[in-house]
Amino acid sequence: MKALILLLTLSGLIPAQAADNVQLDIGGTLISPACRPQFSSPMEIKMGDANINQLKQDTVPVTEVPLVFNCRAGSQVTMVATAGAGSFDNVTLLTNRAELGLRLVGNDAAPALALGQPGEWTAGDVPLVVKLRLKPVALQALPDPGAFSATLLMQISYL
Fold first, then answer.
1. pTM
2. CATH code of 120's domain
3. CB of 116 within 8 A of CB of 80?
4. Would residue 30 count as lying in a domain?
5. DSSP alpha helices (H): ranges in the chain?
6. How far, in Å, CA of 55 to CA of 48, rounded?
7. Is residue 13 part of a domain?
8. Of these four, 71, 79, 110, 125, which has the most CB atoms within 10 Å of its CB?
9. What values do phi and psi take at 94, rounded to 5?
């Protein structure tokens, strides 16, 4: 205890030194993003009518939605899609109508975007077009006729 009192007493005897003044000049450059989407958010997609027989035969036409990005050449676009109201499998969104799903469909040029899995594209010298392809499908039984809706959420990043 005596050592602590002595130390506190001695520390009061040492004069304080003035602090140095330091100036930091900070600068940078703002650049435009690697890509700019040319579509609105949120986006509403109108699908054509499909009849129950088309669902039964799995012949409902595919609706193609082009997602256009203006990017610097060489930029990387990564997109992860998730189902807003849940999914039936890794490529089928649930809709608000029982037994009706909305499937993400691929083609020969590009496989289907899988829910929860990143899709990646590299931009060239022209605008990048990612085609989202969707089609209504019956799940385990045929749904009742009527209007339907679904929500697809997309997280998009650019490098």
1. 0.75
2. 2.60.40.1090
3. yes
4. no
5. 2-11, 52-57
6. 13
7. no
8. 71
9. -80, 150
